[in-house]
Design a protein that fits this description.
Radius of gyration of chain A: 24 Å
Number of helices of chain A: 14
Distance between the termini of chain A: 45 Å
CATH class of the largest domain in chain A: Mainly Alpha
Helix content of chain B: 40-55%
Number of domains of chain A: 2
CATH architecture of the largest domain in chain B: 3-Layer(aba) Sandwich
CATH topology of the largest domain in chain A: MetI-like fold
Strand content of chain B: 15-25%
CATH class of the largest domain in chain B: Alpha Beta
Helix content of chain A: over 70%
Shape of chain B: globular
Number of domains of chain B: 2
Largest sheet of chain B: 10 strands, mixed
Oligomer: heterodimer
Structural class of chain A: mainly alpha
Shape of chain A: flat
Distance between the termini of chain B: 50 Å
Number of strands of chain B: 10
CATH superfamily of the largest domain in chain B: Periplasmic binding protein-like II
CATH superfamily of the largest domain in chain A: MetI-like
């Protein structure tokens, strides 16, 4: 049977239709619904957004969220870079070991990990007790039940997520490029700075984006380890929706969260240059 | 389920024998193993496709689930079984279920002020007082959309090894970190916190309501450097006391009793100056088992014998002081609504919470969030 060219196109269009349809139904419609809630509950209008603009405690939650998430991203990606770098130049057996230890935390529940940190970092936990008995401290360090604890827990949680895109990106760096660079006279640091690092930037951007978005939505770890002093935006949304059943404000806060993610996505893309992802030269 | 396990083990064994004999290919064996694993996993999943012949009671999980199951064992209404779901019927959860039409719970053990609010929003079924005998309730709110199901108190749990000789007797003692050194913990969702703060600041119980929120928040701020964290689950407050992270905790009497038993008396508590409150039975609209069965369950749960059983199993106080005489002497000592204990306590006013909870909670969390 011979179908015209346009007929073929139409058939192909029909075949791929399910995917955009799924995205619209599964993602865009509910998001529009949340936006609708923020504008209509409990009364139609922009009151919920006015509340967000007017309430200083909500501002401090948003700043705290941004601060903790940016810090988490920076620290996690830095640690992940070191891990991935070690992996890049390791033997096959070394690589296997590193992969095992990076993937192992994925099999542990987030709650168990948070509680483990509590046990370690509490005032009478392992870390403080050993430092006290060694005589290095007079009073226990407040390592947990504050922002520092939340940060530690979140970094621990995020490092495996940051390592994976970096592994893939570093794995793609051709050894011969590095050898070429040193054969042209560049020292190890120069090669690292001018050849290796720029080539891994797409991986770094992907890792930063992943960690940042995940940490924005994270609230169990900061809630447990932050002792109530590290309240994040995600937890505020949970409280508004479930504890107080104030759906309008919860929805408005969700839209604010989405806007933050969108802004950061744009910033990341601009910083790194979309060309790097699509393969076109910038 | 047990039979299924045996059967599956048997199938696996037979398959293995066949592979060794060469009559079953390795590939088919692997496929069979995958199917078996899926079937085994389906076991618990089957329960989630709720058996249509059960009344589902929702509560806050943990030890409370087996407690409910044990106390309400004798419930039987036209062949329906009881199922206890511990996922926590928060206001938002109930509202979501009713609005989306996928109601999973028949009767919810919720917060009393939630029943006022949800009732106003129209997501609850009115209680049928021709089936439920409200005269059985001696203590606790009874209104169109909910009724008291059991009572509990916010008490001071304290380290008996340190303070046993001179135990704290009032919330002023809780705030006194010089006389009773150590850290403190309070309830994150703020119920009773403000009352404790005002009582510590010298307000007499009869002048407590309407709560002077500013004064209470100032008092809380005073204690904040000594609050190590706010607990949000019952198990958490038990753990904080038991591990010595705090020397005094504002906690539910049920948990205080549990940690006292766990530690053999190293942690103690009392009803002095405590805040007593009722919990509520509420029925979401369009519940799966139907309103009639929900009311039958509530009527059953309200019977004096059932109330006594609940007290015996989990120390949840009855809502009728007459039930006290059915209890043993030890249980009477820890019963919040025993006349001797009720006298020492302050009763929580849930109508105030129904009107002011949201705004006040926002202020409270903003304060403790730093």
């Amino acid at each position: 049977m011979r179908i015209s060219f346009h007929g073929t196109l139409r058939i192909y269009a029909l075949l791929i239709l399910p995917l955009p349809l799924l995205i619209v139904v599964g993602y865009l419609l509910p998001t529009a619904g949340v936006l609708g809630w923020s504008l209509s509950l409990p009364q139609p209008g922009l009151q919920n957004y006015a509340t967000i603009l007017d309430t200083p405690s909500i501002h401090s939650v948003i700043w705290r969220t941004l601060r903790i998430c940016l810090l988490t991203t920076a620290i996690s990606v830095a640690i992940a870079y070191l891990i991935a770098f070690r992996w890049r130049f390791a033997s096959a057996r070394g690589r296997m070991l590193i992969e095992l230890f990076v993937l192992l935390p994925f099999w542990l529940s987030m709650l168990i990990r948070a509680f483990a940190w509590l046990v370690l970092l509490r005032n009478d936990g392992l870390v403080n007790q050993s430092l006290l008995t060694l005589g290095l401290l007079d009073e226990p360090l407040a390592l947990v039940r504050n922002e520092l604890g939340a940060l530690i827990g979140m970094v621990h949680f995020m490092v495996p997520y940051a390592v994976l895109p970096l592994l893939s990106s570093m794995g793609q760096v051709d050894d011969s490029l590095l050898r070429a660079s040193s054969s042209l006279g560049a020292g190890r640091w120069e090669t690292l700075r001018n050849v290796f690092f720029p080539l891994t930037l797409p991986g770094v951007a992907a890792a930063m984006a992943t960690v940042f978005v995940f940490s924005l939505g994270c609230f169990v770890t900061p809630a447990l380890l932050g002792g109530g002093k590290a309240a994040m935006l995600a937890e505020s949304i949970y409280i508004q929706m479930f504890q107080l059943s104030n759906w309008g404000l919860g929805a408005a806060l969700s839209i604010v969260l989405m806007a933050m993610v969108a802004v950061c996505a744009v910033v990341f893309v601009k910083l790194v240059g979309v060309g790097r992802f699509t393969g076109r030269q910038a | 389920m047990k039979d299924k396990q045996h059967f599956i083990e048997d199938v696996a064994q037979i398959a293995q024998q066949r592979v060794e004999a060469g009559t079953l290919s390795r590939r088919s064996f692997n496929q069979l193993l995958m199917v078996i694993a899926a079937a085994a996993g389906m076991g618990p999943l089957r329960k989630a496709f709720a058996d249509s012949g059960s009344v589902v009671v929702a509560n806050w999980g943990g030890d409370a689930v087996p407690a409910f199951e044990k106390s309400f064992q004798a419930f039987n209404a036209a062949g329906m079984k009881l199922q206890v779901d511990g996922s926590g019927p928060t206001e938002g959860a109930v509202k979501t279920q009713v609005n989306s039409g996928a109601v999973r719970w028949d009767v919810c053990d919720g917060e009393m002020y939630s029943s006022y609010r949800l009732g106003k929003e129209g997501v609850l079924t009115p209680i049928d007082y021709s089936v439920v005998d409200k005269s059985l309730i001696g203590y606790g709110d009874v209104h169109e959309f909910g009724l008291a199901n059991y009572s509990y108190s916010y008490v001071m749990g304290y380290d008996a090894k340190k303070f046993g000789k001179n135990p704290p007797k009032s919330w002023a003692d809780f705030w006194d970190v010089k006389k009773y050194p150590g850290k403190r913990t309070l309830y994150k969702w703020m119920s009773a916190n403000l009352e404790c703060a005002l009582l510590a600041d010298g307000v007499t119980p009869d002048k407590l309501y309407p709560l002077d929120v500013d004064r209470a928040l100032r008092k809380i701020e005073e204690l904040m450097p000594h609050i190590v964290t706010h607990w949000s689950t019952g198990a958490e407050c038990q753990q904080l006391l038991r591990d010595g992270e705090v020397s005094m905790a504002q906690m539910w009497h049920t948990r205080a009793q549990l940690v006292k038993q766990d530690t053999g008396g190293a942690i103690d508590w009392g009803f002095d100056n405590a805040i007593v409150a009722p919990s509520v039975w509420m029925v979401p609209k369009n519940n799966p088992a139907g309103a009639a069965n929900a009311m039958k369950f509530i009527a059953f749960a309200l019977r004096p014998e059932t109330q006594a059983k609940l007290m015996e199993v989990y120390n949840m106080g009855p809502v009728d002081s007459k039930v006290n005489s059915l209890l043993s002497a030890e249980l009477q000592k820890i019963n919040p609504t025993a006349p001797d204990n009720l006298r020492k306590q302050v009763q929580m006013n849930n109508l105030w919470y129904a009107d002011h909870y949201s705004d006040t909670l926002n202020r409270y969390l903003a304060l403790i969030g730093g």
